[in-house]
Amino acid sequence: MNDFREITPGGRPFTRMYLNVMLWFVGRAVQAAARQDLEVKREFEALPHRFTFALTAAPDGPSMVVGKDETGRVKYLGRRPGDYPLHVRLTLKSMEALFLLFTFRESTATATARDRLYVEGGLPEACAVVRILDIVQVYLLPKPVAKLAIKRYPRWRLKRHTWDRAMVNLRAVIGY
Predict the structure, then answer these.
(1) Per residue, what are the HEC states of 74-118?
(2) Is 72 left (phi over 0), alpha (psi -120 to 50) or beta?
(3) What are the pLDDT digits (tens) for 54-102?
(4) Is this model's pTM higher than 0.90 or not?
(5) Distance between CA atoms of 147 and 11, rounded to whole angstroms?
(6) In the chain, which end has fewer C-beta atoms inside a 10 angstrom radius, N or C?
(7) Where are the domains of the chain?
């Protein structure tokens, strides 16, 4: 029986790298959308003062942290949720579940229904975070891909689909 060696799964470096880049960009896009989009602004205004949330993959996968500062402005705070007091933590069961979410093969609603998404914190705040993430995905993705990533594609005016989308993407790239 000692002739068999133990096989451990690989670290999946390319998956981890892809998810880190996606979470970085989505975090910055949330910050940009909070400045550009009125609906995202309203969602954040309804959240408590100095509200902070994280989206992570269990047990030690990639993550992003977004929060409001003391002036109420939304900021992408980085990749370490342990550095901040969190009001809401959205945790996906594994890195593979997060990969399904960010390769847009599964929506947030489907991930929740399939028991891949865990929420720590208040349910109303978690629902607001999911609504914000859905709006940001509509801004970042082309329509055929966004329809896969969210539950229901919104009917927006032309300005919101063109100008606001361009501004959110530009602000996400430059970090403003």
Answers:
(1) EEEEECCHHHCCCCEEEEECCHHHHHHHHCCCCCHHHHHHCCCEE
(2) left
(3) 999 988 889 999 999 888 899 999 998 888 999 999 999 999 999 999 9
(4) no
(5) 31
(6) N
(7) 13-174
